[in-house]
Fold:
Amino acid sequence: MATFVKRPHPRHLAAALLLLAVPALADAPATQTAKRPGFMWKVTSPTTTAYLVGSIHAASEDMYPLPTEMEQAFKDASILVVELDITKVNQLAVSMQALDLGTYKNGDTLDEHVPAETMEQIRTFCKDNGLPESALSVMKPWMAGLTMAGVAMTKAGLDPGKGIDEHFLEEDQGKKVVELESADSQIQMLSTLTDAEQVSFLKMSNDDMKNMAGELKDLAAAWKSGDEKSMLKLLDESYDTDKNAKSVGEKLVYSRNAAMAEKITGLLKGDDKVFVVVGAAHLLGDRGIVALLQKQGFKVERVPMTLPPPPPPQPASAPATSPAP
Structure:
């Protein structure tokens, strides 16, 4: 469960995580010299340089190798900045904290706090995924939404261990690692949503999971092609449904963007080169980290990416032969 606590809302999660890999786009041949817009920006201050990378927190082997420019920028940096260093998280402690804050203690049940229509959708989800309804019945809406997202991701064969942030954390190369947030702050953020916001969060979770595979494919295609407008459109649709959805977006995305940008600004005042990996959703739009840094006067440039060559074809397996007598 703790794996998914750091990924608030399935669509934001989908955009920030990009959980499905897709084939190379037909209009951008996969050769070592082809260029495409990438989800990496170069930020220049009077004293240093930082690279901002839009992260995929869970992916498959098909996402690798990453563009050469991305790997080189990481190699040149002395500080790696991530939302949360998941390699250092105490999974048991995080799980216990989430369960403590995300379950009812006074005999309440989920069906007393959500509309009948939403509860029926939850029952259908549980039935379709072999999940006992009792597993969610004592959870608060935000916790139920994360749990359902976790089940859907697992069913889709998604692996957080293959995410871009995990990739660079494993490479490490002796760099200093700086966290922009903590597991505690992320759980507290979710647990302090109002009742109405939690219901809206859960409704969005239900809606997203109706066509999660299709949406993830669209988002993955947008990431691979560098299509910022399409990705931003898919993100914005989540939080435009009603006032509670907008409030959820304010807390889970925009307020975090401002706090992250402030910490990155502090690093830009130093001398060390910095490599920042955050969910792609946090970089985009008028209130994204890229725009916030531009408004502070930093020079920000989009970095074209070199497409890696396609993987070599796998040889056909030789037919099994019987041992000689």
The beta strands are 35-44, 49-55, 79-82, 176-179, 274-279, 299-306. The first strand starts at residue 35 and ends at 44.
